[in-house]
Specification:
single chain; eight-stranded antiparallel sheet; binds 6-O-phosphono-beta-D-tagatofuranose; about 10% helix; globular; mainly beta
Length: about 325
Amino acid sequence: MKNNAQAIKDKLKALNDRFAIVATEGQIEFELGHNEVILAEVANQQAKSTISLHGGLIMTFQPKKQEPVLWISPFGYLNETAKSIRGGIPICWPWFGPHATDDSQPRHGFARSVLWEVVETQKTIEGAIQLTLELHNTPETQTQWPHTTRLQLVVSIGKQLEVRLITHNRGQTPFVLTEALHTYFMVSDVTQIAIHGLEGCQYLDKVDNSTQRKTQTGPVTIQGETDRVYLDTTADCVIEDPRLKRRIRIAKENSRSTVVWNPWIEKAKAMKDLGQIGYLNMVCVETANALDNAVTVAPNEVHQLQAVISIEPL
Ligand code: TA6
């Protein structure tokens, strides 16, 4: 146990020696969080953010003089199956939802529940801090995903939050993946918000067993359990939050699906890590490629899923 603690301390020191940027106008440092998870703490003139190396989870993002943009469980422990802390931006990869053929595989893939490696930190000319994490094949992931891939997560923290999930196919054969930046947004009261951008889109409604395609009329509002995969949409989404007097804009690239999820009261109770009223303060609007929008990546090709999250006054 002592050796393990020392090994983590040594790792932390090595990360800080190599990757920390300490400057008055912008910095990134590595610290130890709960359960000995290493966290990247970013703070600059424009925003602050915490990113966990466990799962590459962007836990928080808060632009200067603004309320937090992401919702994160106040019960910030790794959940009962140690998949991920609920909240922030879990990475669903290389599949979204249940595995297509094997129920014993974890929901939403394995990227959110394994350790990522830091490969680069830098300060951009705009003054943002950029952190690049990488996930390599291991003997364990190879059994779940028998393809030679390099997965990178590039996170840029500035006035806006930019997230790029980059899949490199380093093998000899094409593969098909589904994926999502499963983003939990903080809202004042989920029953009072409106999500724009999906008007006229077709969606599969998991609450209605996804039996038929439905068409969205008007903005999405949440008045009960909501679990929808909107297909064939590349549009920006905007969460309008009158009480917080803000709009959250989610602009995306190389994403053809948007998932909207709120578990509502009963499911939230069963989940334990949402708390009594957690469901009221969160909504997931996920930049995704799911179901029919699965992506094929040819050998030596790179696929880059991107979301840019920014705040506008209302
Ligand atoms: O993206 C929506 C969804 O697939 C829902 O069906 C819901 O269960 C949610 O993700 C959370 O999944 P998790 O495995 O993190 O509990």
